[in-house]
């Protein structure tokens, strides 16, 4: 696996990070190893839209100007403002803007970036809004809401997070499992063993990854079954094989939610939920 600090030859869009996969670095034997159900759209985003996650143009601007941007007719300005507001100090006017304007936006990216910023700001109002966002029609917004709840207070919101294990989208189920693993550790054994049978390769991959932190003969047996199952994509098999070699206690102590090396070492910032949009 490449050192994340040296992974400079990948996509320039910060929403596209294959390094966030536990199986990153495994070589695919062919197209049959690629799960085609992942949410990827080709050719829809303009170069300017891809720059919406760059909040540098708003550095140094007042919060009021960012709130104005959240009301703009310009989609890129709204997306950028939603993200930039997460860099502010929590205040009622900012929470009002993100909740009443950002989360009500017709654009799913604006809603996703708004709930992401609420996760950065934290607090009771942000948490309550993120819980409400778990019913958003867009799965990537729901997935981001789980990341926000995990940051704000995963223990307080454990019931809402657990309910998302039954969501119909793989990214939501995966993020719920990651958050609950951080909260409950070995108590997640049965959930993760069940997720190794999930319809989604992505969920099975992460379940195998998280099982590295759970001791037990039944866990090792299941991981060996996955590692030796030729019907599984190679990325899932290789993840299971690596998990067998992990020390469960050390894995749990070191696990913070993903491969955070690409985020400057800050465990509160990960790109686990970024939807590819070329």
From TrEMBL:
Organism domain of life: Archaea
Gene3D superfamilies named among the record's database cross-references: Leucine-rich Repeat Variant
Full protein name: HEAT repeat domain-containing protein
Species per Swiss-Prot/TrEMBL record: Halonotius roseus
SMART domains: EZ_HEAT
Region annotation (Disordered) ranges: 1-33, 234-278
GO molecular function terms listed in the Swiss-Prot or TrEMBL record: oxidoreductase activity
InterPro entries with a match to the protein in the record: ARM-like, ARM-type_fold, PBS_lyase_HEAT
Lineage, highest ranks first: Archaea, Methanobacteriati, Methanobacteriota, Stenosarchaea group, Halobacteria
